[in-house]
Design brief:
Glucose Oxidase, domain 1; alpha/beta; 19 strands; single chain; Rossmann fold; 6-stranded mixed beta sheet
Length: about 350
């Protein structure tokens, strides 16, 4: 790992040039996970949420919720309220980690209300997926703080017994950076929780064995960051790109031609400079207007970069735990499919 030095307790890594990626402290038994609803609340799926919280507690964590978690509607509360409740968990010394309760569609409207200096001054793990992508991405690319794209939000740990992907998530929170291997089966009907379909990764442009700094999230959310005041992607690549960059994209319901055009937007915005590989998850609700497959259009957009399509990340279960800002090795060939965090 030329150019990276970890300190003895692995709380940050330092590049030779002096750039610092802060790795928040890992958790231990009985630590407190603070939950807030930066997008939708959980009241409409409260039974599922209660099962999830019990499973989290059974894995030896305590829970502290903000007032907006057990609410209903497309957003849990006004944008300013969501920002203040997020900040309150970072300011709370009792809270060891912050997690987002649920996904949704309208987290973007709170971004300019958040005092990111508070989050930066009190670095803790921030975890979520789908709509919370923008918060995670900004924290890592703008403020050099590693974040976690989790296998689900805090309302999704409702499968009993918990699948290995969720157990790995809890291990990673505690600093056991397990090597995550391609799971043999995946969901056939989405959100069914039934893992019955054979899991196949598709290598576009050849087998993959690459190392690089991991960054990404939900593609529908990331596209809205391009060119905004929150888009510090090229600065991030300038800092860490000598290690190589490995992107991952979770697709919810973007059409195949939408993915094609968005990948070209990322490319033309300079986001794929120094990219070693791109990991694209299974599409939760696939659709197309031009009768062209995702694989075909991804290959057309990315002729010169290694791509793994149908990777284990995103809305379709099971999903790996992805740490934005951490260096990884990713392998995909006939014998092995895996993602490993490197120290």
């Amino acid at each position: 790992m030329t150019g990276i030095k970890y300190n003895k307790d692995c709380t940050f890594w330092v590049k030779d040039e002096g750039d610092i990626m802060i790795i928040p402290k890992y958790l231990k038994d009985n630590d407190v996970i603070g939950i807030t609803a930066c997008s939708a609340g959980v009241l409409d799926k409260i039974e599922k949420y209660e099962v999830s919280i019990n499973n989290v507690k059974n894995n030896k964590f305590r829970i502290k919720e903000t007032n907006n978690v057990r609410t209903s509607g497309v957003v849990s509360s006004e944008a300013l309220t969501r920002a203040r409740e997020l900040e309150s968990l970072f300011l709370d010394d009792e809270v060891d980690m912050v997690a987002i309760a649920s996904g949704g569609d309208f987290l973007y409207d709170m971004l300019d209300k958040v005092d990111f200096n508070i989050l930066k001054s009190h670095p803790k793990w921030l975890a979520g997926s789908s709509d919370p992508t923008s918060l995670l991405y900004i924290m890592t690319t703008n403020y050099d703080i590693a974040t976690i794209y989790s296998p689900c939000n805090m309302s999704g740990f409702n499968i009993t017994p918990l699948h290995e992907s969720y157990l790995n998530y809890f291990k990673i929170l505690k600093g056991d950076l397990v090597k995550q291997n391609k799971y043999p089966y995946t969901e056939d009907e989405h959100f069914s929780d039934e893992l019955t379909k054979e899991n196949t990764w598709l290598n576009i442009n050849g087998d993959v064995d690459e190392r690089g700094v991991l960054i990404g999230g939900c593609i529908e959310v990331l596209k809205d960051i391009i060119g905004t005041k929150f888009d510090k992607t090229k600065d991030f690549i300038d800092k860490y790109g000598n290690e190589g960059i490995i992107w991952y994209f979770d697709i919810f319901n973007m059409s195949s031609e939408g993915v094609y055009n968005t990948l070209l937007q990322f490319k033309n915005a300079g986001w794929f400079k120094k990219t070693k590989a791109i990991l694209i998850g299974k599409v939760c609700f696939p659709n197309t207007f031009v009768d062209m497959s995702y694989e075909e259009l991804i290959s057309k957009a990315m002729p010169d970069i290694k791509v793994i399509y149908n990777f284990d990340v995103g809305h379709v279960k099971p999903s790996f735990t992805m740490i934005n800002g951490f260096k990884v090795r990713v392998i995909s060939n006939k014998e092995e499919g895996s993602l490993e965090y490197l120290k």
